[in-house]
Amino acid sequence: MADVDSPIEAARGAIGVTTGPIRGSRKIHVAVPGNPKVQVAMRAIDLEPGCGEPPLNVYDTSGPYTDPTVRIDINAGLAPLRREWIMARGDVEAYDAREIRPEDNGQLGPDRSGGVQPFPNVVKRPLRAKPGANVSQMHYARRGIITPEMEYVATRENLGREMLREYHRDGESFGAAIPDYVTPEFVRDEVARGRAIIPNNINHPESEPMAIGRNFLVKINANIGNSAVASNVATEVDKLVWSIRWGADTVMDLSTGRNIHDTREWIIRNSPVPIGTVPIYQALEKVGGIAEDLTWEIFRDTLIEQAEQGVDYFTIHAGVRLPYVPLTAKRVTGIVSRGGSIMAKWCLAHHKESFLYERFDEITEIMKSYDIAYSLGDGLRPGSIADANDEAQFAELYTLGELTKRAWAQDVQVMIEGPGHVPMHKIKENMDKQLEACGEAPFYTLGPLTTDIAPGYDHITSGIGAAMIGWYGTAMLCYVTPKEHLGLPDRDDVKVGVVTYKLAAHAADLAKGHPAAKMRDDALSRARFEFRWRDQFNLSLDPDTAEKYHDQTLPAEGAKTAHFCSMCGPKFCSMKITQEVRDFARLQNQGSEGFIATEEAEAGMAKMSNVYEETGRELYMGAGDREHN
Amino acid sequence: MADVDSPIEAARGAIGVTTGPIRGSRKIHVAVPGNPKVQVAMRAIDLEPGCGEPPLNVYDTSGPYTDPTVRIDINAGLAPLRREWIMARGDVEAYDAREIRPEDNGQLGPDRSGGVQPFPNVVKRPLRAKPGANVSQMHYARRGIITPEMEYVATRENLGREMLREYHRDGESFGAAIPDYVTPEFVRDEVARGRAIIPNNINHPESEPMAIGRNFLVKINANIGNSAVASNVATEVDKLVWSIRWGADTVMDLSTGRNIHDTREWIIRNSPVPIGTVPIYQALEKVGGIAEDLTWEIFRDTLIEQAEQGVDYFTIHAGVRLPYVPLTAKRVTGIVSRGGSIMAKWCLAHHKESFLYERFDEITEIMKSYDIAYSLGDGLRPGSIADANDEAQFAELYTLGELTKRAWAQDVQVMIEGPGHVPMHKIKENMDKQLEACGEAPFYTLGPLTTDIAPGYDHITSGIGAAMIGWYGTAMLCYVTPKEHLGLPDRDDVKVGVVTYKLAAHAADLAKGHPAAKMRDDALSRARFEFRWRDQFNLSLDPDTAEKYHDQTLPAEGAKTAHFCSMCGPKFCSMKITQEVRDFARLQNQGSEGFIATEEAEAGMAKMSNVYEETGRELYMGAGDREHN
């Protein structure tokens, strides 16, 4: 794997990324039933030959980077997987791209130094909808059209679900409608009614279609992006590839400062996952950071600029209305959303209603010409436990609900961003209000953080809230890294944040009773119970770390096949006792049910005693869960 | 701090521990109202002089190790804080200790090599209750006696709660009865009715009294202990001091293999927190690891041995009854509790009911002579998501409820151990059944882990479940480290496990609406909002890590006082905008409430516009939550 070299190369200014299969698994492509031209990427985890279990297929966000048969060239970008599908619909036209200006890369900003090399392979003639056309997946869905994107999603979400013949539901889904089996028609219907979105700009054909919705697997987003203070394009592309390797379903480029345009081009051209941005950040750079100098024209121009590059969803803080701004005056932490504070500042400076709110339908016109999804930003979200669920937050939420309906009126896809800091007892109210206010549009939440007292561990304070709100119905969880509130995440922080959120999303899927979720837990538990250490590592979210931790106590290769663990040592193993229990329960004819220590049972046990003396005594025993007592 | 040297010293075989104040705070002692001889240790965090806020007092488990005025000598042990209180009650007698035998240190075990030096300062004449006496805190409580231990707990739990004049409750406590202010009488009443325990063996006078109960702050336990495979006494004492430094309220010594007796002596003599053990582990060593060779006599002798050393609570797996064992036969992971599997093995081998169950009242006789609390073990807890909430688990739980009442009949304190692996939707059922079956005896849960697929991150998969079950009513959370299922935790793992569980316990206190909990979140949020970086670090659970992470992006000392953060850089800061909002809301006479963009408002705003042009324009702005968009 280039993994090890990557940081060094990045330091040199070259762009090195991590490639090669994830340990213990291989890339596979599953054909869509009835449409073999659409091949869905997955990851197959092979188990020990002896165990008699089939390979486990898991959801794979890592794209071609983990496919040894694909040659990766960051300077060329990824292959345009979806281009044929897009062109085949005959509703788009190529046109001369808007010209790139110095201010697109922040040259009006305070720092005029530096600059990254432009992406060598820029598309000069991007696509847009033909006059009068609407190229959004929602528009197709509402006209009854099942697109290849929808077919891809259906196969991708099913994983090995057809293996679950005798699966019976076990979960509490709080009103979600998760099907036993996902059909392309189900995907179409969910997109048509706005309960799910498939964010994929027609100018980002490199992306592998994925769905964000309460009735699909819970997704996670990773934030990257350079800032005025630190980082460069090489490390950002490396972080992109690194974050999708570990499971990021979408990535947001939150770059600020200079080189915003070029950095984004490098990221999109090399991304197999949807890319989201907050256009107001770049618009602000274009006016030298003076919020009150922002104008609709500059903002609109920025939307076109990013639409042509292929951004898949835009965070638009159109719910930060002038009347709501003073509602934050009594807060402990005021307005902590960057986009929210920019718009609040603009509203105060001009004492006018937000141009994002007033021009919303014009923005929607642009969205539908490129199939960009809205991520309606929660600019007034609470920045502390003290401010959670307050008047300002919910006033904005209900406005987002109103805007959702306006976007849907033009068949444009929408998701809603959710709160940052919320104590556990106030989390469900957020989910319930969002479902009611926004007509079941997908909820996309940050955390939420369940306490403010653990900076340095906010991936965990927020992972707790993320798992809970994911269970309640959130469709996508925006990750938080250990550096939250303290600094910019490095690639180690990105990995910890992604894996933490992946496990939170999975815990949510389990609790919702998602048919495909429990298969992996059960496979890993069987491997653990049978001391198939390799399988246990390979089935985990992070095989590298699992094996490393194991080896810190028991380095020997033999220990990986040993029938004991370091918690108990070679002498003890509770797994052993269970085999004895099973033999006992079997031999004693009535099986485990209805076993009571009755007279009859006593008799049966006396008989068993001899059997045991002969067979069982030499079996050593103990416990595999040593730290648990 | 000796911190840095400690591991080296430990490697040398010497016993080095981390001493010195926790960064940014100082040890204080608060006198119990009306009983100034009882001085309760706390930690005071001083804030920046300019901010006009008083120091924040926080709960402190670290004992004398963080008190610069105390000279620490591991070879001498800690001062016997409680000895006077114990003697003053006049119901104990000193007697000649049971003689130490080779098998006490596992010399009958497989490995006869090695050995640690015995603790130099062993008490030759331990204490026990005089004939006919009962020295349990529950016994005193039921006779209406308020002990110094109860007074200590009351002051310790209140923290700065008297500061909360205008505090109004905000939380969902699921039927807990948390008072606004904790009085010694409240503590007595909770202990009397069995809803809380104060575990403190009369032979462990070094311990600082603490309470475990649903109506007190949620506590956490850290497990340490050497094993047949790894570690030595120096590292275990170091781990003890290290774990309480970061917040462990109790510590369990789960040592196995050789040197069990001597290791435990070193740990207890140097521990200011209650120490728990699983006596069956040592009893098993005494019979060479052959479970079926265990006898009541050997087990009873082990209880006396450990009682005389001062163990504060015993995990007793008396609920693993013969009839329940076959109920585990169909499980994916069978029996994963070590103590549970030992007893299951014994029951199968002899086809007899467990001697722990049959001799329970005799065990209770011993407990009340030393004031040792029961931690009734969940030997049949699930070891995987697949086995959660099954028949075997709940059959045992109801038996633990029956045993609780038998222990209470002799005024012996009890807590109940809870499950290890449970998906989120099945967690609350565990809490509800425990409250009902065990008459509100404190619940002491491991995790629970909410998914099985993240070995290497099980402190997080379990931290999620821990926060939730703590909210629902669990009194103490047993930590899980990143090494769970993979290896033995080193001191870094111990710290991560403790801090993770500390934040989970705090999130639970917040959600329950505990009056003392939110003060710290609010203080930290104000510090964050006002860019008091030092205060933000010092108020956090782990100031060292918070500052380290901050410095990785902005090392300069100046950056710690700068009014911006690395997420946004010097140009942007959303905190700034809020001051403008406040000025605006103030100047505009109607304040934030009732502000609507009406004609009148528009007029007022027009007037404001000029004010703003003069005052506000030069204020730069942006957002402090850059990673959040």
How is the secondary structure organized here?
The structure is a homodimer of 629-residue chains.
Chain A: H1 6-12, E1 25-32, E2 35-45, E3 56-59, H2 83-88, E4 92-94, E5 127-129, H3 137-142, H4 148-158, H5 184-192, E6 196-197, E7 212-213, E8 219-224, H6 233-245, E9 250-253, H7 260-269, E10 275-277, H8 279-286, H9 296-309, E11 313-316, H10 338-350, H11 355-358, H12 360-370, E12 373-376, H13 391-408, E13 414-418, H14 427-437, E14 443-446, H15 458-472, E15 476-478, H16 491-512, H17 518-529, H18 533-539, H19 543-553, H20 574-587, H21 599-615
Parallel strand pairs in A: 8-9, 8-15, 9-10, 10-11, 11-12, 12-13, 13-14, 14-15
Antiparallel strand pairs in A: 1-2, 2-3, 4-5, 6-7
Helix pairs in contact in A: 4-5, 6-7, 6-16, 8-9, 9-12, 13-14, 14-15, 15-16, 17-18, 18-19
Keywords summarizing the entry:
homodimer; 629 residues; alpha/beta; 8-stranded parallel beta barrel; 3-stranded antiparallel beta sheet; 21 helices; 15 strands; disordered N terminus; zinc (chains A, B); S-adenosyl-L-methionine (chains A, B); ThiC (chains A, B); thiamine biosynthesis (chains A, B); metal-binding (chains A, B)
